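Priority: low. Protein: Pyruvate kinase. Input follows.
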Amino acid sequence: MAVATSDSILARSLITDRRSTNFGLKNEVCRGKVVPCRAGGKVKGKGKGRVEVKAAVQIGGLEEVKKAKEEMGLDVVSEEELREKGFLGMRKTKLVCTIGPACCSPQDLEKLALGGMNVARLNMCHNTRDWHRDVIKKINQLNEEKGFCVSVMIDTEGSQIHVLDHGAPSSVKAEEGSTWLFTAQKLEGSPPFTIQANYEGFSEGIEVGDELVIDGGMASFQVIEKVGNDLRCKCTDSGLFLPRAKFSFWRNGKLVARNSELPTLSKKDWADIEFGVSEGVDFIALSFVNDADPVRQLKNYLYMRSSRSTRVLAKVESLESLQKLKEIVEASDGIMVARGDLGVEIPYEQIPTVQEEITRVCREMNKPVIVASQLLESMVEYPTPTRAEVADVSEAVRQYADALMLSGESAIGPYGQKALSILQMASSRMELWSREENRQSILHQRRLGVSLPDRIAEQICNCAVEMANNLGVDAIFVYTKHGQMASLLSRNRPYPPIFAFTSDNGTRMALNLQWGVIPLLVELSDDDMEANISTTIELIRRKGLLKPGDVVMVVSDLTPTHINSTAFQSIQVKTVV
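Result:
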């Protein structure tokens, strides 16, 4: 197959039978020297089915390299990991930490960032907007002053019908046999054994004997008396009761349907969204999404409200959302599998298969997916996880989820940093094992592109990953404006890491959630692709992160501004000498 610069040639050549194919590389290399590939190196192949790269580009010893920025756009954690573990040792599964009272100081946030936190999640159910603003400021300072790259996500509260509050600033232990009053009356302070519901009709249709479940099973109560709209309940399963907890009612083993006409996005949610936009957050996660309409509504609002590209994630946590999964995934920019609330609405035994199905659909449709809730739940109280929890984490990694998320483990638990390190170690080990066992997940190649350029970009990324895996290249370099091609490469889950160079900071922060992508903020030329390649490779080489003999694959989705500009939709393989 000749990897050419013409879209029409590419469209024809990409479907060539790879068993009789030779990959040829473009020889028009700006300021570079074409040299034969080294024999016996990583780019190799003999006999039938051989994949041959006829030429690579000599990167070392460039006479001219554009003057670069003093600081590369590579974050300090990725740089250190690359130095320590090499390209193939870099962790690809992203890590999300919920920020709460236990980890909101500058020192704790920095420790989480050093531990591998890619995204900081702020749950708008808890704390004040001033508190959240202060945390966002601290994270921005870490990024700007200490070279981290941590994105910020806010998580909306959702319909008030689901929320209870005991009034205390931290968690409260509900002991088995204790009696509690659940009321919609406005309370002052935090009376003992009293819980305030945020929705006046919270007890409509509820009967004596019904079961009230807190946060998907953190604690359980039985209704023993109904007085007006108030419920008096006895704790049947002791556990932690978090501030602004979510709840559900069960009767005879079945979920009690709540006939509420409250919208998915409440007035408080819209105020929180406006707050998030003004603070420049990177992601907004919508709670209790039952169909695609609220996702489209929010995306339209954000498009009109702000020039910044804020990604919208939908939380799958109800039976209704599962029934309309594909339309929700298609409308959103990503999915969070909220297993705690989801586990309340479907049988426990279905959770593993549902999680895998959601992950598969998201990957097919090229949307990042976060596996969340109760990953290391025991570490809210204890310094070590159960072996079953570690196995659960490893299974999510084996399913190629883009990200794993800590909730109470980091927000309120005393061992948040240790929990993060366990996620990091477990995910890195499972990734290595999967690669060694060649357990690359076979992806049903659902065609995403409609226009010819989009279909070409998709095919380029599919073939580029296959080439990268077969040739054993060290890294994939992608030059991107909006992150689309980096995302398409990530979708194929390549063995080598994907270094995504972009001049748009919003794109950089969004790519923080994509599996295997290390985003870098650099100045890119719209007209001289070879200058982009030469400059960025030389900058990384000067840092000692590239060494002679390393092989990188290069793709791009940048659009040239002049007709006679270098064609950008191509695959190149370059060897550092």
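Residues 416-436 form the longest helix (21 residues). Confidence is low (pLDDT under 50) at residues 1-71.
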